[in-house]
Amino acid sequence: MGLIDAVFILDDKDSLVFEHIVNSSSPTYDYVHAQLLRSKRELATNKGIDLSEKTKSLFDEDSSVSLECVVRLDSNWLIAWNRVDNVCILALGSVEPGYIEVYSDDEEEEGEEGDNEAGQDETDSQQVMKQNASKDRSVSYSVNPMQYLQFFKDFAFVTKAFLETDTLTVSDIESYSYRIAMILQEMIDASYPYITDLNQLRELLPDNSIIKKIISTTRQLQRSATSSLHPMNQRPHASQATNSNTMFVTKKASIFEKSGNEIPWRAVNLQYTQNEMLVDVIERIDYIIPSTGTSIRRESQFNPSSAYYDLQTVNEKRSKRVLPTVANIQGKIEFKSSLSGMPTIQMIFDSVHHHLGIPTFHKCVDLPSWISKKQILEFIPPDEKFTLMEYNIDLLEEKSNYSNFIGLVDAEMTTGLGIARNAFEIRLRTNLLPTVENVEDLKLDIYLPRATSPGYTIKVLRITKGNLQMKRNDCYEWIFDKETVTGLSCTLKGEIRFEDQIDADFTDDPSFDPSKVKVVKPRFVRVSYRSKGSVPSGITVKAVKVLSGFSSKVKPYKGVKYTTLTGDYILR
């Protein structure tokens, strides 16, 4: 019993697609599902929510009733879960005791000698002292959810690489269940994560074409099974080593025993005809702006030139840009190399004086060099694309102007316009940058207030670029071209009305009192886009060098690409 005693993979309806049992005493998935359903119903009951018609899956994205990432099923078992593309992965583990007694051999011997000397005359006070000493030797133990999250991340990455897919689907899991079972057999040992590195797993597991041949026919089964382990047969120290060498290998760390490679993330004896190094700097911006308003000249509310109201009554002097509640950049540097031998790479980048928080690195990075030199990474790269570094920049904690680092697209929304105070205006700009030609997939999702029948709709007053269309009952999309030029400035003005009052004129109603009207505005607007050629923080890679382990006569191709994505870019 340990951290991972079983792994279950589910579809979007919580149906079991694949299971891998590590511990035979593990409960079935039916029991796990029943306990999770009970836990979610308890959460819904405590919040006064009817769960019967609200969810089709225990792990849906309904934020009102959501399960924790690690859920305790009973006194013996707990479950951790994580969504990966179109499937949900569950890891079943056992509940460990709250503390573990730890004794050394010396302590036991001292305890025996003391007992012999004292005999049977030990007093009550001495007993209490021994009990307190025993408590001091206890080590507390608790489950860290990050252990499960890291396992899910490694498992998803390895599985996608072996199945040669970018997205895990139910059909992939069903078609290659034998492959996934072999992966988990190596990744989990004694109910704990064991070998999780992709390159080492590639050395240990047979080629997929060999497996298909074995499954399709039993002819020459022994020969096929032997040839499928060709990476191990090619290693002289694993199959042809002397007894003394074998004893030496046994003394090494157990994680290297099977593959025999002291650098598990990179295969040995790699040779390429075309050597290259490719760097991807990717940043995602999270930017949440609180609600702002516009003042209205009350003396000009009823303008006879308009049946409803004249937008000229809006005071053009808008309030200053308010401080965002969130201004955050999440970045990562991905690296892909096709280099012969065992090269040591040095990457130098400019952080533009940003504080990168507490960055995380791939295990190939030489941490002492980073600590001593900063902005310089030295590493022996794996033989595939990998995430070299991840960092986080909180723009609100920096002394510099946060508005200079929010990306190419700048948007602001003003609400409470008009006599009925149900009009809003969104202004959007795409900034000019020499390294960026256009902005891709630019759109704004406008979420309307929740209402029963009849629902709300938007009456467009002015739109200077793009198209406005309904996405669903409470959401509209302001969509632009696939590629939108930089330097663009556009405006969307609209009114939020009930569906059955789309053409109503409130000034015709004698009971209409503008002083008692409440503001009707969008709940929030979500901005999304992507661009290539720059990142919001301005971080750049200055140089990529090969320090050693590579022929000086060969000059590898070097390329750097910058990509900007949006996370929670929201106007309220």
Write structural notes for this entry.
Keywords: Membrane, Transport. Strands 10, 11, 13, 15, 18, 20, 21, 22, 24 and 26 form a ten-stranded mixed β-sheet that branches. The protein has a five-stranded antiparallel β-sheet with strand order 2-1-5-4-3, with helices on both faces. The two termini are 49 Å apart. Strand 1 and strand 2 form a beta hairpin. The protein contains 13 helices and 26 strands. With 572 residues, it is an alpha+beta fold. It is 22% helix and 32% strand. The chain has four domains: 145 residues, Beta-Lactamase, CATH 3.30.450.60; 42 residues, no CATH class; 116 residues, Immunoglobulin-like; 121 residues, Mu homology domain, subdomain B (Immunoglobulin-like), CATH 2.60.40.
Question: Could you name the key traits of this structure?
Answer:
single chain; 572 residues; alpha+beta; Beta-Lactamase; Immunoglobulin-like; 4 domains; ten-stranded mixed sheet; five-stranded antiparallel sheet; 32% strand; globular
Structural class: alpha+beta
Percent helix: 10-25%
> Main β-sheet, in a few words?
10 strands, mixed
Radius of gyration over all CA atoms, rounded:
31 Å
How many helices? The count is 13
Percent of sequence in beta strands: 25-35%
What overall form do the CA principal axes indicate? globular
DSSP strand tally: 26
What is the CATH architecture term of the largest domain? 2-Layer Sandwich
Could you name the ranges where pLDDT drops below 50 across 5 or more consecutive residues?
117-122, 231-258, 293-319
- What distance separates the N and C termini? 49 Å
Look at the structure and give the CATH class of the largest domain: Alpha Beta
Average the pLDDT over all residues and give the rounded result: 78
